[in-house]
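FORM 7B - TANDEM STRUCTURE REPORT

SECTION 1: FIRST PROTEIN
SEQUENCE AND TOKENS:
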Amino acid sequence: MNELSQPRRTSHLTLKVGLFAFMYAMLAGLAIQLIILPYVFPQLHAGNGLLVGRDWVGFHEQAVAQMQKMALGGWSEFRLRPDGDNAITGVASFFYFLFGPHPWTLLPLNATVFAIGGMALFRMLKFLELENNDAIIATLPYLVFPSALLQYGQIHKDVFCTTAVLVMLWSWVGLLRQERKLWQIGPLLASGALAQIVISIFRPYLLFPFLGLSVLLLLWYLGRTLWRAFQFHLAGNVPGFFRVIKFDLGSIVILTLLSAFLYLMSLSFVDIKMSPLPFASVHPKIAVPTIIWQSNESVRSADAVRIVSSKKFSDDEIYAELLSQNPLKTPAMIASLRLEVERIKAARMEAEMVKAIQECRPVVILREGAFFENLINRVFLKIAVARAGFTSSGGVTAASNIDKGIDFCRNEDLVRYIPRAIQIALFAPFPTSWTAVEKRNSSPIEIYISAVEMFYCYIAYFGLLYWLMSYRRWSVALVVPIAFAVGLTLLLGLTVANVGTLYRMRFPFVMIFVSIGMAGILQLAKIKPRWVQSLDSKID
């Protein structure tokens, strides 16, 4: 009976955490937009409750322009991505059309989404078998960090991406736990699928790391099952084998479904169309949303203009070109032409690579039949192109830039930069900049706040290290969130050259490190030195 009541108590506590997070986010968001920025720090106020010098100012202006079109043409003018990229602009215009062009109208939605993310993080910490009080304390940084205000208190897609990432990781951990129940699989799959849809709307490129993680986990469970089958085969205990691998087989099925859905989602993107009701003339602001799945084949990928197509180096095309120049087709001539094809192909490839290196632009040559080599090259190329996009945008002289002059011209450049990328991704802004005023876009207040947060993060990193070294068993509750957070943090360190942007985008992954690290510190604090233990035994 106690075992049955424990999940209920945890669920009730999770709801309380979510309700508290919602109320806190609502009140803090209203305070920052209506009081703190306009009256306490007017020098940081860009108007309408928005912080000066950030993307949300432009998102607000685009949403107002979209709202004005909708005011004239109705819901038919609604576009989820008015600029073709940022869905948050369409979301803001939706609320502006209903309630007026005020950023505070988005606060209920932002607070709700933020609270769901807090609940997912809390449940992941509970999967680590923490006591309720320890799990609540470890979740607090997600709520009270001043940088969290940028998640729900401004107009940006970060809060949706943060929550979607945390919900997906929570659902995956729940699905792969040894203690999972059959009735939990459906709700967890549905939660993960909904989070995937949210990610596909706001940051679709995050689906690919999740796809990579799901494939790696699937290979792990397949390998473990085969190894156990081999061991039981040697022992001659076939019935016992099926009893033992029942959980692994279920995990393989679940991971196959997750991987398949992620792959299908990567082939399409989600759009939303608003359809007015028949009595729209009476209630013009009432409409029904319709989800539209569209293929992304027509959408230019990040490396579409960079990849050198294999057709440029096709044997058949080069051979046809040589035949047109040499009308004689004797056997000796054909044999020599075949050799010439290989020489010309190699020369063209080398010339293209030399030109790319000289121009320092990302490029890759796709080779026929080299699937894994092409796959790796595509991944490296996408990272290089993404970094080039960040390094070529924004203020070149901004003091918050780090290594902005570094681009990845070759795959080796990227590999050599990995240690530096990890350093930047985890520890920037560095202590040397904690008291320095940025040249643009940052105030002393923002810098000092980030310094306090980073100091806390450094302490939490120590707790994380202790937790990883002392945790009695490395279960999926620890491995899955940490592995994904490490991978995505490294990816951000490789691509983002501006600390301000990095600081905002890495929020969900740093919260995983900080929360688990705080849990480690709490466990460390419970350890009694030997002299205290001996003193207690003498008193007893």
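SECTION 2: SECOND PROTEIN
SEQUENCE AND TOKENS:
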Amino acid sequence: MFDPAFRAQVTQALSQLQGDITLWSATDDTAAGRTVSALLDALAGLSDRVTVVVAPEPVPRRPSFGVALAGTAPRVWFAGAPLGHEFSSLILAMLQVSGVAPRMDADTRAAVDAVAGPLDLETWVSLGCHNCPDVVQAAVALAVLRPDITHTLVDGAVFVGEAERRAIQSVPLLFAGGEPLVAGRTTLPELLVRLPRRAAAVADEARAPYEVLVVGGGPAGAAAAMYAARKGLRTGLIAERLGGQVGDTLGIENLVTTPYTEGPALVAALDAQVRAAGVEVLAGRRVIGLDHADGVGRHRLHLLGGGTLEAPALVLAPGARWRELGVPGESAYKTRGVAFCPHCDGPLFRGKRVAVIGGGNSGVEAAIDLAGLASEVTVFEVGGALRADAVLQARLARLPRVTVHLGAQVLEVTGDGQRVDGLRWRDGATGGDRHTPLDGVFVQIGLVPHTDWLRGAVPLDARGQIVVDQRGATAIPGIYAAGDATNGPFKQIAIALGDGARASLSAFEDRIRSVA
């Protein structure tokens, strides 16, 4: 099943197993079932510590298999064959079930212990989704560490009927106890914020005072934290997840000195460099408010779930989220046909009719990607021309089964109560309203800054962006900002990196002047 080079890599990985592993097989005679059987046999053939047994009834899904330490029942299951991006999740699950401890800091481990159980988790994925492994691996770590938690990966392309019955049209989608909990990429610290707890979280107020606190883990926040730490300042970086929107980006081709990389790889590099600089990363925390400690020259950040952190200098880099259309039906059909990540959700629309809203780079790139999967792709652009780079427009024009509507104003996402069935829009050429039957709608119309929690604390412009000067400073002494959440004119990774460095250097210079 594996070519020689890959076989050698897998053999090396399995040599690190700490205990004997049993794979509980529940296959069938479908193509997917035969793939699962071949995968399990191949793994067992690469390590004497891996054995395949037939899973006892009842089994909720076939084909599937469980991963268990020999002599115990599985708490980790895979429904379908976890190949593609998810093969790493399978190997990691086998290692962790065998006794290799999941990597995490003391705070995260304490939060794992505080989760209220028992808990049954399941994550719906597509094998081409580069965001799904983060969710799967976070949930697997919980199941490995907690005997009262289970997790099942479900490949939506294999269990199509169940996905349709449950109106699952977006991945990754994590359920807890059968109820949707998280849609989209999620790391373990983020997941822990959303799960019910049976004990109080670690007290952040007990930490030693910081000299600089950075809010946001994207390129701007990472650069700001690294530069502050390199200046010898005790620096904390607060982020729900390190990497921000970059983690949702597949191909990156415009980063100077790096002809091509992918979002997860860049996030891993940022994480490593930030930690190497001595930054204390406070992951999985959401900042919900900011006020100022009058008379002591410090600024106070309020965290979701309670707790505060203070520092004399803040660098705000909260980033942005996908902009929504704001039309009827959009919210009602999120994860049921309305999607924002073509790389993640595209495989769920194979052979179906989809629309892409937006004619900028993101929209045209999405249309190009989806054209290889969908039966029809229709691009709706409200302006009179596409705004994407010429090279992307040329590539789009060469593709079959792609239609572009210019001057098209989206009025409503329509559906049958369970899932999307079309789009109602106004034709700018005729002025009349039209309806296009569809199975999915991908919204690609830009970003909205994550700044609602800052209203009244720092000046924002009419678009909700943090107003900064040429040094990255706000009108509030000691508070700086960087990246996509500011009123800077361009939203690019390279610019965010520079913004973060500039804001941090300005904070350092101002501190030196105030001390002098």
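SECTION 3: OBSERVATIONS ON SECOND PROTEIN
Residues 4-194 form a domain with the Glutaredoxin fold (CATH 3.40.30.80).
The mean pLDDT is 91.

SECTION 4: SIGNATURE
Preparer initials: ____
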